[in-house]
Amino acid sequence: MPASERQAKASVTERIYRWVDSRFAVNDLVEYMSHKSVPVHGHSIFYYLGGLTLFLFMVQVGTGILLLMYYRPGSESAYESVQFIVSQVSFGWLIRSLHSWSANLMIFVAFLHMFTVYFTQAYRKPRELTWFTGIALLGLALGFGFSGYLLPWNELSFFATRVGTDMVRAVPIVGDYLMQVLRGGDNVTGATIGRFFGLHVAILPALFTVVLAAHLLFVQRQGMSEPISWATMKPEEKKSIRFFPNFLYRDLLLWLIALNVLALLAVFFPDGIGVVHWPLGQKADPFSPPPPVIRPEWYFMFAFQSLKFLPPHVFFLEGELFGMIVFSIAGLAWMLVPLLDRNSNLNRRSPLFTWLGVGVVTFIVVMTVLGYTLK
Question: In this structure, are residues 343 and 354 in contact, taking their beta carbons and an 8 Å threshold?
């Protein structure tokens, strides 16, 4: 390309940039990002898990919008519309597979992100709100999984949703009312699909977007957490790289790798593999007998199996109610860890909380394995 053409194109680009900058102060944002740095140490790889979770969520949004163009909620149309997507729509089976794989991988990476933040004590002051919003995002992601499971209206999703919503009845006083709100009546029907569809495509995405914006704002304002061992180091002894463009380019490269992995999984395993699967199967029939084995999604299995181990009554409480109370208290305590761990706020390690985290991970893994091995 001649030098005159390159100069002309450069001048056009500069004019466009100046036009946008004069209205939105883009240059201030670029200047701010260019001065941000990311610590470099033995655990730096964990910094990429948050961005990878964000990428998988964006895949969820994109594929979800494409599926929404053909999906029709309702007991007489939901199953047929999904069947039409995977059999008649061009690449419909691929979009559904990408949506399902990205959902499972997003929750898996989000769990990894949470535990790496926990074990590195990156939740300590001043990042308490970052931890709180991260836990809220994980809870909303689990809500996406639960609400989306029923939408194909096949046999397995119908009976699994019936079992899952029936557990809400264990809540004292308002249990029956909450169950009816979730189901849209006393039973799982077409009205339940409408409720879950509204949750999945409107209410949960709106809440997720707001909390995600707050979470990203906190991360950008506070930067990446430094290891506790850095508290005693001199500034010149600490290593770091610029967020823009060095860290951002590496993050984008990881996104590209993740996209390739997603594509391979979606093409070669369109209905999932092993315990992570979503075959369309038979249409739900409320009058047919339930399958011999009803299992929730893998990320709910540890809680499901734990409740199965409980006796019918614990003290004066029903077993399910007792289990839900224990899980609620444990979840609240886990969320409040930044306030409970006093040592971390003083840049000191907390062996007690480290072993507590090891116990939680062990419990989740063991209960999940038992859930798939025991009948």
Answer: no
Task: Answer yes or no: pTM beyond 0.90.
Answer: yes
d(CA 335, CA 133): 10
Sequential pLDDT tens for the chain (375 residues): 565 555 555 578 888 888 888 888 878 777 777 778 899 998 899 999 999 999 999 999 999 999 999 999 999 999 999 999 999 999 999 999 999 999 999 999 999 999 999 999 999 999 999 999 999 999 999 999 999 999 999 998 999 999 899 888 877 778 889 999 999 999 999 999 999 999 999 999 999 999 999 999 999 888 899 999 888 888 888 899 988 888 999 999 999 999 999 999 999 999 999 989 999 999 999 888 888 888 899 999 999 999 999 998 888 888 888 999 999 999 999 999 999 999 998 889 999 999 999 999 999 999 999 999 987
Q: Where are the domains of the chain?
A: 41-228+239-280
CA separation, residue 327 to residues 97, 166, 304, 357 (Å) = 32, 17, 11, 15
CB 286 within 8 A of CB 187: yes
Is 191 within 8 Å of 185 (Cβ atoms)?
yes
Q: Which of these, 44, 43, 53, lies nearest to 112 by C-alpha position?
A: 53
- In this structure, are residues 320 and 167 in contact, taking their beta carbons and an 8 Å threshold? yes
Which superfamily, per CATH, for 41-228+239-280? Answer: Cytochrome Bc1 Complex; Chain C (1.20.810.10)
